[in-house]
Amino acid sequence: MRLIIHTGFAILFFLAAMTETASAALIIQGYSPDQHERFSGTSFIGNGLDLSGISNWRPNVNALNTWATMISPSYFLAARHNAPAIGTAFTFYDGNSLLGGSATRTVISGETLVDSDLWIGRLNSAVPSTIAKYPIATGNLSGATLAVVGSSTTVDGQRLGRNVVDLQFDGFNSPNLTGTGDIYIYDFDSTSSAGPDEAYLQGGDSGAPSLTLVGGNLAITGIHWFIYGPSLIPGTDAEFGSGDSRVGSYMNSINAAMSGSGEFATFVAVPEPSSLLITSSMIAGYLLIRRRHPSKGPGSVSNNV
C-alpha cells in the first residue's frame, strides 16, 4: 500500500508498516550477500562496528519486522507506527553470527514520545554487558554519514548500508503520517553520490536505526519512519529517499519516560560541521575499506512500501 503525502516541499510515501502484509529487504547500491548481510556475510562491511544492541523479530519471512535498539540496559527505541506488541521476544547477538552468544528478552511496556513516531519500550530484564547500549547523537546532523540498518530476506537477517544526511526539519507533519516529529532525510541516487553501499528503506524497515560515529563509537541518529519520491525537495538530486525521526530532539521525553527506573540514556553532541566532515569520512572510509570489490551499481528501486 502506498500512501501519498502532499506537502509544501515533497510528495512522500509513508512506510505504512501497520497496514502492510509483506516485508521487503533494504535496498543497497551494489548489494552483495558477503558484504551487506550482518549474520552471513564473509566480508561484512560492518565487521568492527558493534551492532549487538540491535534486534529484529517477525514470525516468518513474509511478515514485517519489528525492531528494538538499546539505549540502556532495559530500554530500547522503536517506531510508533510499527511498535512491537507487549510480549514480543527480541534476541540480541553478541557479534555478527547467529551461532555466537545471545540474550533473549521480552517487551513488558512502552509508550509514544510526545506526538512523534518514536516509541520507547522496556524489556523484562537488563540485557548483558556484552550487548551495546547506544548513546544518542544530538545537534546538527546535516552531512553526517549514516550506517543504515534494515531488513533482509531471512527471518533473523539484518542488512547494513550507508547514506548521508541531506536535510533536517523540525516539527514535520502530514495528514497521512502518524504524529509530528523532527526528522532528517537522505536521498537515493541512481549515480550514488554517497558512494558504494547507499541504502534506501523498504517496508519492514520502520523502527530500525541509523547510526553514526561520534568519538569513534556508534551513536543513534534516527529511527526509520518513511520514504519519499519523486523528490521535489530543494537541495536533493534524487528521485527517491528515506526519512528518520531525529532521536536527539527528544532528550527530555526520553529522560521522562525512564524516570524512576534507575537507568539513563546517554546523549552525545555531534561535532561542528568542520569536525563532522572528519567523523563522516571515518565511517565512510571504514565501510569502504571493508569492501572487497567495487559497486555493481544500483538495484531496482521499488516505490511500494
Which helices and strands, and how do they pair?
Blueprint: E1 4-6, E2 11-14, E3 27-28, H1 33-36, E4 54-57, E5 66-70, E6 75-79, E7 89-93, E8 102-112, E9 118-123, E10 136-138, E11 145-151, E12 158-164, E13 167-173, E14 180-188, E15 199-200, E16 209-214, E17 217-228, E18 240-246, H2 251-258, E19 267-269, H3 273-290
Describe the 3D structure.
This protein is mainly beta and 305 residues long. The chain has a domain at 4-50 and 134-290: Thrombin, subunit H (Beta Barrel). It contains 3 helices and 19 strands. Strands 1, 2, 11, 12, 13, 14, 16, 17 and 18 form a 9-stranded antiparallel sheet that branches. Strands 4-5-6-9-8-7 form a 6-stranded antiparallel sheet, with helices on one face. Strands 3-15 form a two-stranded antiparallel ribbon. The longest helix has 18 residues, at 273-290. The chain is globular and about 45 Å long. The N and C termini lie close together (6 Å). 52% of the residues are buried.
Q: Tell me roughly what share of residues is in helical segments.
A: under 10%
Strand content: 35-45%
Specify the overall morphology. Answer: globular
Count, helices: 3
* Uncertain segments: 1-21, 274-305
The biggest sheet, with number of strands, parallel, antiparallel or mixed sense and barrel status, is:
9 strands, antiparallel
Radius of gyration: 17 Å
Overall CATH architecture of the domain at 4-50 and 134-290: Beta Barrel
Task: Find the structural class using helix and strand composition.
Answer: mainly beta
Task: Write the CATH fold name of the domain at 4-50 and 134-290.
Answer: Thrombin, subunit H
Number of strands: 19
* CATH superfamily heading of the domain at 4-50 and 134-290: Trypsin-like serine proteases
Order of helices and strands: EEEHEEEEEEEEEEEEEEEHEH
Distance between the ends? 6 Å
Text of the CATH class of the domain at 4-50 and 134-290: Mainly Beta
Average predicted confidence as pLDDT: 82
